[in-house]
């Protein structure tokens, strides 16, 4: 459908959501042309800002009737292009749905709308001794709906898990325009499949999240090591000792340099790598384990312990700014996201170093060391001919390394448009077909965030192509209902 | 298909699995006529004992070609009839698949076949300081494959979660006879939907489980209270204090009486209720919190602390024998399984008491108090006309109570054949249709454990009946592939 052909649909959406909440002006539309994956851009055909599940259901039905694809978007901070619009499609933005509908401290849960900002959940319950545990770096701006779509993690997911571990139920508008409840309940637990489905199985309109008690005590240290190997050994020693820190983050020399340039974080000079280790929990446990951690970091040439929340924030400042800070030392960079078994860390880091040396492409390593989630930052200068291609090559080779070591092509940033092409490197055709069966069941028309997650936007009917013979429903004349 | 009509299929299965591993003798078949839900029985048409994924794939393909339903069975200890056979079907028993294929202590995981007994995983890794956390009461005999199908819990799932929290990947034979890997990986996380799908989405042939470190310290106490209310208040106080015990189990006077009669557990006489509270973890934490728990149980008229593992086993003995023990005080009983928000415990227990008083049907209460998972044992004497019906009525009313209080009709025993009829009391038609879409996607022919979990064994084609108009794939002529 041409952009002009969307006029009728826009008219219908104005009736559904109110004229002021439907955007068709080209200049305004351009604000929505990308999410956090900024090198993929497309101006949406229409943007609509609904105010509730019923409006979203009507929007989905209207798009389906016209055969127009639709994509949901929260705050647009995703790093894999899961909310990349289509010029022939409708972008459904949830920024008007920012109500916290219910807080139930006794049962440790809250019910929120999808546009609610992650950190606002914590702000709403902190005075009662609770918080919302998943903490992506973007938590001051990202939305809970987006977190659900991407199954977002964060520095503390080593101990506390990902979004899926903190969502108890979702109200969802399915691609056939029904409003359903998906929860941990008898029958299939579709919550696990829905959380992290990157907007391809429906649009969440209400989320019941688990609230977590604020820990009695928090301890944070920064340990500076001569080499990345000795920092890696400290990580292994801590985990092997049975300590589960709330976070263990590692930064290498290049990322420390970048953070220093950007935010003057004042990390110990000359470090080959630093670890940020945070423990939280009952005071007795934290005290005991923190002493252990300090001992296990004895190869560090300097250990700083945060005396209070201000010093803790200072330690985290360098780590949290690292991605953006890389912009200070390189005009362009790719944020990679891969996972390896923790035990493979030393070998994979050495191989990344070799890849970097061989290609002349600099790679800064920032990562959630405790759970083997790497975020290599592959640096390049787009003004130099061929530099972007070399960076992409190294970036791809790093993913190959992850797969080779039994890991994964994404830890927490999602597949989106960015990594759909890599899926066949991790999965057999049968595995992918099995996943696609679920997509086709939910979205037979293929209009719900098409082109994301899975490599080939095949017609749903072609997916179970390995099945032979006539489908029993065709035989019985009932196929038209499916 | 008549039983006689299965002869050809039996012949084919003998070629696949070996003649000695296909049972068609009526007397032998009868051994498999039920699982732990003993009041539903059906002699299977054929029993086959395969020895690997490839054989299971061939069996599934053979059944599909003949249009014969098939049902997988582990040790047959399930309490909701999930492995109830069909006289016109094939029962696929995994008892020959009992190999532990791999133990990887460094990465804290093991790969096992589905027939492996739950406790055998722990036995295989205990000397290395690890165990497999999910501990259903039947853990000495139940299989990991069955645990996956039912998403089994246990006394310690308050702290450690259910089977789904300890399974990292499953190799699965899908209803179209493909062998696929389902894991926590990019793309849809189907693991959550597969674990607990009660054998309706395929048959697991290999399971990667998470191994958990043995805790540094364990403390267990038995607290005896005058009334169930004061025991309940102690539970609330413990949870509100932020303590997460490994287990908090409650038994009321009637179940204590039964356990006493069966295993002479020697609980304090005259108790209206007892709590078993267990803490585990780092010694410093356990010591600190155990002192807290003892204080919070100050309404108890007696507290016994286990001095060692023998005394711990003694405390657990009464609790673990409770279900079977009820047989000592009543010729027949229904084991009910429901969930309520923990905060609703006092009110629901009082209502159960009223229901029991009004109907004259005795109800013994044994439950995982920490997570609100009730196991009321509804007692009756089948020899008394109308007694079974009254017991079933009270049992159903208890489920209604659970639903009324925002709870669930099953906590850990599954839906199976037993509770399929109750599903519409929890879910809207749209919710059920959404779940059924997944079933139809996986099993369009409806041969994989049919009649379980969902109420009406409708033809898959009828499920999305709310959709109107012609399906786009029909229009495009591709519907025959779906």
From TrEMBL, chains A, B:
Coiled-coil features, chain-numbered ranges: none
Cofactor dependency: FAD
Gene3D superfamilies linked to this entry: 3.30.465.10, 3.30.70.2740, Vanillyl-alcohol Oxidase, Chain A, domain 4
Keywords assigned by UniProt, alphabetized: FAD, Flavoprotein, Oxidoreductase
Keyword Plastid set for record: no
Keyword Transmembrane helix belongs to the record: no
One GO MF term attached to the UniProt entry: oxidoreductase activity
Signal peptide, first to last residue: none
Record domain FAD-binding PCMH-type: where: 40-214
Pfam families: FAD-oxidase_C, FAD_binding_4
Protein name per its UniProtKB record: FAD-binding protein
């Amino acid at each position: 459908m041409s952009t002009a052909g969307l006029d009728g649909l826009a008219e219908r959406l104005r009736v559904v959501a109110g004229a002021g909440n439907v955007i068709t002006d080209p200049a305004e539309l351009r604000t929505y042309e990308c999410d956090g994956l900024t090198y993929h851009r497309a101006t949406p055909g229409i943007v609509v800002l609904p105010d509730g599940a019923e409006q979203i259901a009507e929007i989905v039905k209207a798009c389906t009737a016209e055969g127009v694809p639709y994509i949901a978007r929260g705050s647009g901070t995703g790093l894999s292009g899961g909310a990349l619009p289509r010029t022939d499609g409708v972008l459904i933005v949830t920024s008007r749905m920012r109500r916290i509908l219910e807080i139930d401290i006794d049962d440790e849960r809250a019910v929120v709308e999808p546009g609610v900002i992650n950190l606002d959940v914590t702000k709403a319950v902190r005075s009662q001794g609770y918080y919302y545990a998943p903490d992506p770096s973007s938590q001051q701006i990202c939305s809970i709906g987006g977190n659900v779509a991407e199954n977002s993690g964060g520095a503390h997911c080593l101990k506390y898990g990902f979004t899926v571990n903190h969502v108890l139920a979702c109200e969802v508008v399915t691609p056939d325009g029904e409003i359903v409840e998906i929860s941990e309940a008898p029958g299939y637990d579709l919550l696990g499949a829905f959380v992290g489905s990157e907007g391809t199985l429906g649009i969440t309109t209400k989320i019941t999240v688990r609230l977590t008690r604020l820990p009695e005590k928090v301890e944070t240290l920064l340990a500076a090591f001569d080499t990345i190997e000795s920092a890696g050994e400290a990580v292994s020693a801590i985990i092997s000792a049975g300590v589960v820190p709330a976070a263990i983050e590692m930064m290498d020399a290049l990322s420390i340099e970048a953070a220093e340039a950007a935010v003057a974080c004042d990390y110990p000079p000359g470090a080959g790598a630093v670890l940020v280790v945070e423990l939280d929990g009952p005071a007795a446990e934290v005290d005991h384990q923190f002493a252990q951690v300090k001992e296990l970091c004895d190869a560090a040439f300097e250990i700083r312990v945060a005396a209070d929340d201000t010093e803790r924030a200072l330690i985290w400042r360098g780590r949290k700014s690292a991605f953006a800070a890389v912009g200070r030392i390189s005009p362009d960079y790719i944020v990679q996201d891969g996972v390896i078994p923790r035990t493979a860390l030393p070998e994979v880091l050495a191989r990344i170093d070799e890849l970097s040396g061989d290609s002349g492409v600099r790679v800064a390593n920032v990562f959630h060391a405790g759970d083997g989630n790497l975020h290599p930052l592959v640096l390049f200068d787009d003004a130099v001919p061929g530099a972007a291609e070399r960076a992409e090559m190294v970036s791809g080779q790093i993913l190959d390394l992850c797969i080779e070591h039994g890991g994964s092509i994404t830890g927490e940033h999602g597949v989106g448009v960015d990594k759909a092409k890599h899926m066949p490197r991790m999965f057999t055709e049968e595995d992918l077909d099995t996943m696609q069966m679920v997509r086709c069941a939910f979205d037979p028309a293929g209009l719900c965030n098409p082109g994301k997650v899975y490599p080939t936007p095949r017609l749903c009917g072609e997916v179970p192509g390995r099945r032979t013979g006539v489908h029993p429903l065709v035989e019985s004349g009932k196929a038209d209902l499916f």
